[in-house]
Amino acid sequence: MAVFVALGAFLMTLAGGWVAQRVTDRRHLVLGFAGGLMLGVVGLDLLPEAMEAAGTPVFGVPAALLLFVGGFLVAHLVEGLLAGRQVAHGASGERVPEVGLTAAAAMVGHSLMDGIALGAAFQVGGSMGLAVALAVISHDFADGFNTYTLTRLYGNARRKALLMLFAAALAPVVGAATTLLFTLPEELLGGYLGFFGGALLYLAAAEILPEAHHSHPARSTLLCTIGGAGFIWLVVGIAE
Prior knowledge:
Strand order of the largest sheet: 1-2
Largest sheet: 2 strands, antiparallel
Shape: globular
Strand content: under 5%
Radius of gyration: 17 Å
Number of helices: 8
Order of helices and strands: HHEEHHHHHH
Low-confidence stretches: 87-92
Mean pLDDT: 79
Number of strands: 2
Structural class: mainly alpha
Distance between the termini: 21 Å
């Protein structure tokens, strides 16, 4: 059942990527919406789940929050290192394609964990599985949208963006299938969600949103950002 439901996530991820590539003539609106989606996913979905699953304090601070900050700093460090290497090779001022591929790979990893969470939920019970299935299928549209957008934003070819999109779509199916063999500890899953949330927030705040508002600081771009965050709020509310 979990693998069958994951096929719905596969199709929804592809749908998100299809929408992202079809509206390239409104790039600033796409980026604004993507930034809002990422902000909503982190603040309204990933971080609350991480706190619930891995909220054990470490020196007075919940472990999930420490990993959240760590994810943010690691993303900042990785981008700085890749950009420094690009400058050393005489490509100053250009976007670094490796950053986009790294970010997209993180989205693929996140989609894999979605599939694992989906399979684990069905192991607990049918009602729990259906609740998680609704959340996974709904927000995988945002995952597909963001995977394609992130890959293309950093100058990667359309072929690579489509390849990463397909990988992100296939990942929940693979993740759900693996739960036939093992179950992921809840605390480990919570730590991963915190770390990934920090990295995703860095990309949204430092790259996606500034790029969206740089050339087109229009009200429509801001409304798309708010709409993206609101969409995730709606998805989380329905899932609950």
